[in-house]
Amino acid sequence: MQDNIKIVKTDINSKNGQDKCPKCGSTDISLNPNTGKLRCNFCRYEFVEEKVTGLEEDISKLEGKVIGSGSKNINSNNDNVITLKCESCGAEVVIDTSSKTQSRCHWCRNILSINKQVPNGIIPDMVLPFKITKEEAEKQINDFVKKKTFFANKNFKKEFTNKNIIGVYFPYVIIDINSHCNFKGLGEHSTDDTYIERLPINSPTKGYYSADLYEITRDFDLTIEGLTVEANSDKLNNFSKEKTNNIINSIMPFDIENCVKYNSNYLKGFNSQKRDINIYDLKNIVKMQTKDIARFSLNKTLDFYDRGVYWQQEILDIKGEQWKTAYLPVWLYSYQQVKGNKKILHYVAVNARTKEIMGSIPINFPKLLIVSSIIEIIGFFMMLYIDFDYSFIFLSLGIIYFLVMFLRYRNLNARYEYEKESKIKISNLKSIDNYVRHEVDLKDSKMTSANNQDIAGKVLDNQELNKLFEIKTDVDIEKK
Question: Residue 474 has what pLDDT?
Answer without folding.
Answer: 36
